[in-house]
């Protein structure tokens, strides 16, 4: 064990296109997680700051040094916590699905989704689904390691986890934690859980999965944000609906974990 680590996932209910409201919900979850467990790192779902609203991505896109990130950056410093938050991000002329990594030293790094996905028509009861991500975004190549103490973690955004080489490469780079920022509908959640669990056991990495706790982009979400140990043991899992956070702390005697659902969810 490199050093003791406390890792956490936040489950949010995004407000369509309302960055200010979503930021406030992020901060509420950060404060609650800090008071409960003081995690080293807290990961939010894919596109958490805007919701999975592909038709709004161009208008709401963040820049790499976007001033709207300031409240999260300040929270990362104040609570000595690494935050991973999702947003569409424009790099020069290209639009990407990004995950901002905000650190306690005030720095901000950026992960960009490598493998773009699409939902089938059956994903929505009325058959109306967002366009394929490739119609809006470009695949990215930014892939910073997240460091806290002697630990290293790697970030993945949703469909990235469908490529078995992604977690394998993360482990080869020295990551002991795999931070999966997701938007999973109920049927995909049950398919993805055993996959993420297998990655944990195969590569000896704790896996943290953050999902929405409510619908976004006209699609239902499966909730169920969860954490698995480096042996693939389920440590904690949130309910299928609602906002909250789940955390796991690694100690010399093993893991302890807890899931917390928050009241006042939208």
Q: What does the model show?
A:
This protein has helices spanning 19-36, 57-60, 70-78, 165-172, 186-203; strands spanning 6-11, 41-43, 82-91, 94-102, 108-112, 146-148, 151-157, 177-181, 206-210, 226-228, 234-237, 244-251, 254-261. The longest helix is centred in the first third of the chain and has 18 residues, at 19-36. The protein is 21% helix and 29% strand. The chain has a 7-stranded mixed β-sheet with strand order 5-4-3-2-1-12-13. Strands 6-7-8-9-10-11 form a 6-stranded mixed β-sheet, with helices on one face. The chain has 5 helices and 13 strands.
User: Pairing-aware structural class of the strands and helices?
Assistant: alpha/beta
Roughly what is the average pLDDT, rounded to an integer? 94
Number of strands: 13
Q: What would the principal axes of the Cα set say about the shape?
A: globular
**Tell me about the biggest sheet?**
7 strands, mixed
Features:
266 residues, alpha/beta, seven-stranded mixed sheet, 13 strands
How would you summarize this macromolecular structure in one to three sentences?
By secondary structure, the protein is of the alpha/beta class.
What order do the helices and strands come in, and which of them pair?
Layout: E1 6-11, H1 19-36, E2 41-43, H2 57-60, H3 70-78, E3 82-91, E4 94-102, E5 108-112, E6 146-148, E7 151-157, H4 165-172, E8 177-181, H5 186-203, E9 206-210, E10 226-228, E11 234-237, E12 244-251, E13 254-261
Parallel strand pairs: 1-2, 2-3, 7-8, 8-9
Antiparallel strand pairs: 1-12, 3-4, 4-5, 6-7, 9-10, 10-11, 12-13
């Amino acid at each position: 064990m490199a050093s003791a680590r406390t890792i956490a996932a936040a489950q949010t209910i995004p407000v369509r296109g309302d960055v200010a409201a979503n930021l406030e919900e992020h901060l509420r979850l950060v404060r609650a997680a800090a008071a409960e467990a003081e995690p080293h790192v807290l990961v939010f779902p894919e596109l958490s700051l805007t919701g999975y609203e592909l038709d709004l991505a161009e208008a709401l896109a963040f820049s790499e040094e976007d001033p709207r990130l300031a409240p999260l950056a300040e929270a990362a410093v104040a609570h000595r916590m690494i935050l991973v938050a999702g947003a569409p991000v424009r790099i020069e002329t290209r639009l990407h699905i990004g995950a901002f990594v905000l650190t306690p030293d005030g720095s901000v790094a950026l992960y960009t989704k490598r493998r773009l996905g699409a939902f089938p028509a059956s994903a929505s009861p009325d058959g109306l689904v967002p366009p394929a991500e490739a119609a809006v975004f470009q695949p990215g190549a930014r892939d910073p390691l997240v460091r806290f103490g002697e630990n290293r973690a790697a970030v993945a955004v949703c469909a990235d986890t469908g490529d078995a080489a992604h977690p394998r490469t993360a482990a080869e780079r020295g990551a002991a934690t795999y931070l999966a920022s997701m938007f999973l509908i109920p049927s995909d959640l049950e398919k993805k859980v055993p996959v993420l669990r297998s990655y944990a056991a195969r590569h000896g990495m704790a896996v943290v999965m953050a999902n929405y706790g409510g619908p976004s982009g006209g699609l239902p979400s499966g909730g169920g944000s969860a954490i698995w140990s480096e042996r693939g043991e389920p440590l904690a899992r949130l309910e299928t609906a609602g906002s909250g956070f789940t955390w796991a702390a690694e100690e010399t005697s093993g893991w302890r974990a807890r899931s917390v659902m928050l009241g006042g969810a939208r």
